[in-house]
## 1
Amino acid sequence: MKIHKITLKDYNQFKNLEIDLTYPKGHPKAGQPLDKVCFIGQSGTGKTSLLRLIKTCITNNRSIGKNIELPPFLDGQVLMKFEIDNLIYSVRPSTDTFYITNLLEE
């Protein structure tokens, strides 16, 4: 599984953030998801929040520890685009539902 893009409208410390995880124009793999990604930053910058968010969007499980869950997402708060076996999907978690769309069928 490879993640193309993460869009956060208002999630934890992130406001109107879009993270493009694809190779840039001019690269032989331009537009394809990166093979490796590393989140680097000081304490409190959101590295763990991003990892928990990715885990939640992939598994549809908000549990992050014993008896601890991420709060429900508001509509439109989070959008993640990822690829599995060359199929591209969009995940938009909502208050109580995860909307998963196969982008090749749109």
## 2
Amino acid sequence: VAKGASNVTFTNLPYGNYAIAAINDINSDGQLNKNAFGLHSEGFGFSNNPPLRYGPASFADSQFFLSGTKTVVQIQMRYL
């Protein structure tokens, strides 16, 4: 990721409720890996940047309404 930021564009999505989960798959294996202590060893984040408890954020906590062609969603990646 250049300069700590990346952009992704989704096109032709119908209006509605969406949520985004993102991972920084450092080793490109398609998974969010954990270390020997069970903590995530790669970055992850969710739309709306909800506070995390146990497990991933829920759809309800992460959802946003797509209502236009230029909706911008910023996700704060978390690294443990």
## 3
Amino acid sequence: SPQLQCTADFYLHPSHDSARARELLFDVALTSPYLALGEPIAVVVEEQPWGTHYRVRAYPIDARQQFRFATDLTVRGKVELLRQSFTMAAVPARPEPAGSAA
């Protein structure tokens, strides 16, 4: 069966319990009905100037479910982070280069 790794990104305010956030996002992936059991789940964490970037990586049962799986991870992950009082980061928009026409 073909395998396809899916990702879901989360951006949190820098002041938080990163071990708890990582554990929570791992559990969200583990409880997804689209998860291919037996395949690895990874929660990758990267600090940025504006906050902490979390990327959940996991495999769906069927590659055709990739969008449902990524959506499930994103929606349930965000709900759970907010329910646990985590604050999302406000990632600044990139400014338009000087002299460019909008």
## 4
Amino acid sequence: MLSEADRNKAVDILEKAFKERKQATQLSTTWPNITIEDAYGISTLWAKRRMAAGAKLIGHKVGLTSKAMQRSSNIDEPDFGYLHDDMIVPDGAKLKHSDFCKPRIEVELAFVLGKRLMG
């Protein structure tokens, strides 16, 4: 398990990559003993830091839901993350290539729920 200082260093790395639109070195290269708990802790710290800077939390995402994708990623369960207001791209919007470090398209389904999902 990483120290709180190392988790904060990891968030610094991600924040710098985000601002500079450059790919960060995979965190497991820097910290080979990183755990899934560390990864979610880093994700939560990053989300909190973004919200402190003004981003609004608008929802959560679930990824790697298919067994085939889990096998390809060497994991055995879906993952989740945070969605902020600056991640919304309106229908028909034009995206600038320079806003991304390695642009790719991945089809994702999204659902807007009528009320909060508990449990």
